[in-house]
Backbone:
């Protein structure tokens, strides 16, 4: 029961839980029932729970562990899915009241099926910003999950993968899957003191995932450790965890830091200070830190600041019919306004943005030449919730500020791993982002393992 108590308080990683299974200290049924009970008491984090399916999967996993025939080293670990992923038998709401009455999905999304075949246990579907269209995580339809790091005054969970982050940070599950179009995995990971991995777009199958902007959408897990992220990635790509990639050596590892990200006036002192302390620790461990402008990233940031975000046009095109219907009145007004804001974007301008983004992706790979980039994940810690609910102008400004540093990476299809870098004077998490050029995920994850090891207390 000791392992059970530690688990429900969220201090065990996924791999630590399965080591406890192997040692006979707990079992998948006990852990699933604890997760189910905790999820049911966590306001706003889950849209639906899969009690019947989860119990069936947990029982099967327990039998496999007892027989010494676990399907993988994550067999029996409970996992939650952002409600953009189809889970057979449940409605995929995408966080919108307009989708509540849809028929349940008849099949699992490709990634749900992959982890189910590896023995992971589906707990349920997590909450999100409506249609995944906000970096703050507010949702008037299903409630806003409260950031577990808030203290006495509620703070935002980050979005759009709000429920996934809160479910992990609150200790309900050690793993949750999210989607990331402008920062929707990296931001909530940062605000909740978690590890969040935004993969390159080509890495995983999108079958059964509700889109936001198809040219920018990416998938990935939120977890407590990079080791867990690497294990999930390996299983999603059809590998076995026993052959997971190992950490790169920090000796000689090249890390570029662009001062445009660090010295920006919007970056809070604690975020900057914790990043600098992390860089010092990495340098002492042998990493080569070079402060230099990365022009492709700077141009991408300039595009963001000009409002040249191709995702806006794609999101409008996806939801145009809904916006022109009577159901538009059922949308979160903040989301509806953002969607409508792209109605006037011309197709010719959208095409030029695609072409410019593709050119910048190639330029970035040349500029980095095998190095990695470190930036703050978000310029600030999690904001207070109540003022954002009350003031639309503040919401808009804060949402833009929250996503500003992650959006360039999305535009350039940079895989990124958000890592905790410390806390501010109030104990609120800060985060750094390790990133690489598109499709360099394998090396990025190995570098993230090394960086995490150097930053651990």
Residues:
């Amino acid at each position: 029961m000791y392992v059970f108590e530690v688990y429900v308080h969220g201090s065990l990683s996924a791999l630590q839980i399965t080591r406890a299974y192997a040692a006979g200290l707990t079992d998948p049924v006990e852990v699933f029932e604890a997760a189910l009970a905790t999820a049911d008491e966590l306001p706003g984090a889950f849209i639906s729970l899969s009690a019947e399916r989860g119990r069936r999967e947990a029982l099967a996993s327990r039998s496999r562990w007892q027989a010494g025939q676990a399907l993988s080293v994550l067999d029996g670990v409970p996992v939650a899915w952002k409600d953009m992923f189809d889970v057979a038998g449940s409605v995929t709401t995408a966080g919108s009241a307009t989708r509540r009455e849809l028929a349940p999905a008849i099949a699992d999304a490709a990634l749900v099926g992959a982890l189910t075949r590896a023995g992971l246990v589906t707990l349920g579907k997590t909450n999100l910003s409506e249609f995944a269209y906000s970096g703050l995580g507010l949702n008037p339809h299903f409630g806003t999950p409260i950031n577990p790091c808030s203290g006495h005054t509620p703070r935002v969970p980050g979005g759009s993968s709000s429920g996934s982050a809160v479910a992990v940070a609150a200790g309900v599950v050690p793993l949750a899957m999210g989607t990331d179009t402008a920062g929707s995995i990296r931001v909530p990971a940062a605000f909740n003191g978690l590890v969040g991995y935004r993969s390159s777009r080509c890495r995983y199958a999108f079958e059964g995932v509700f889109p936001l902007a198809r040219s920018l959408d990416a998938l990935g897990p939120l977890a407590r450790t990079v080791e867990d992220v690497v294990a999930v990635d390996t299983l999603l790509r059809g590998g076995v965890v026993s052959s997971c990639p190992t950490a790169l050596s920090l000796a000689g590892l090249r890390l570029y830091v662009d001062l445009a990200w660090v010295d920006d006036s919007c970056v809070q002192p604690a975020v900057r200070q914790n990043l600098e302390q992390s860089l010092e620790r990495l340098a002492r461990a042998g990493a080569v830190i070079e402060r230099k402008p990365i022009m492709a990233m700077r141009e991408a940031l300039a595009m963001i600041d000009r409002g040249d975000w191709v995702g806006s046009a794609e999101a409008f095109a996806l939801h145009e019919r809904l916006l022109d219907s009577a159901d538009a009145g059922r949308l979160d007004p903040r989301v509806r306004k953002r969607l409508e804001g792209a109605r006037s974007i011309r197709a010719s301008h959208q095409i030029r943005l695609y072409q410019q983004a593709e050119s910048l992706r190639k330029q970035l790979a040349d500029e980095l030449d095998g190095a990695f980039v470190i930036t703050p994940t978000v310029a600030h810690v999690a904001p207070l919730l109540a003022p954002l609910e009350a003031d639309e102008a503040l919401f808009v400004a804060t949402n833009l500020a929250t996503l500003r540093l992650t959006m360039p990476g999305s535009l350039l299809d940079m895989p990124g791993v958000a890592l905790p870098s410390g806390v501010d004077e109030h104990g609120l998490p800060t985060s750094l982002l390790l990133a690489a050029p598109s499709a360099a995920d394998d090396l990025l994850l190995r570098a993230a393992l090394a960086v995490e090891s150097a930053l651990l207390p």
Q: What stands out?
A: The mean pLDDT is 96. The longest strand covers residues 416-423. The first helix runs from residue 2 to 8.
